[in-house]
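Progress against Task 2.4 (sequence-to-structure conversion) is shown through the following example record, which the project officer requested during the mid-term review.
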Amino acid sequence: MKRLMLAAAGAALMGASSMACAIGVGVKASTLGTGVELGLPISDRFVARAAMNKYSQDDSQTIDGIDYTADLELKSTAAFLDWHPFKGTFHVTLGYVNGASQLVGSATPTGQFTVGNTTLDGSTYPVTLHTTIDLGSGPYVGLGWGNLPASGFGFTFEVGAVQQGAPEVTLTKSGDSMNLISQQDIDQEEQNMQNDLNEYELYPVVALGISYGF
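Structure tokens generated for the chain above:
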């Protein structure tokens, strides 16, 4: 009996050691950007993950009737806890995404445009508007398939959302030598833009990746 207990204890210790040494790395393409992540099992049902994402792209946006040429830069770090209720690839994920993403744009209208309560003709009175939209950070909830620390190569898929709060807008101007657009107009236009974005408090996440565990 004593030998049997020692053997069982040794097997359990070897299993725990094996689990502690298991680790997984992965690369992903997602709506958060292109990312790398590291996974470490806590038990046979729970896995902790850390991720870093980045992506940039030139874009164009029409906000409150004004066309902006914009540069979208997605940057974030994240920590996740995966729960595998059936000890398989399906998992429920809770986590937090720390975002530093921005959309930085500028517009020099060539036709008639309105800022706040002032309407101008851009061909006669050239003015450049500069806007910065900051995306926030927040908790994450998602569902996925795949097990990052699983031995060998594998695929991962995940859908979820970040409760980031409404994006924050900042608007400034340049080139208005005659000061035709007042600060009150700028403040009003900024608020109009903010009102357009207030409904986007949830940031959707769809991710597809490749993982390797060893």
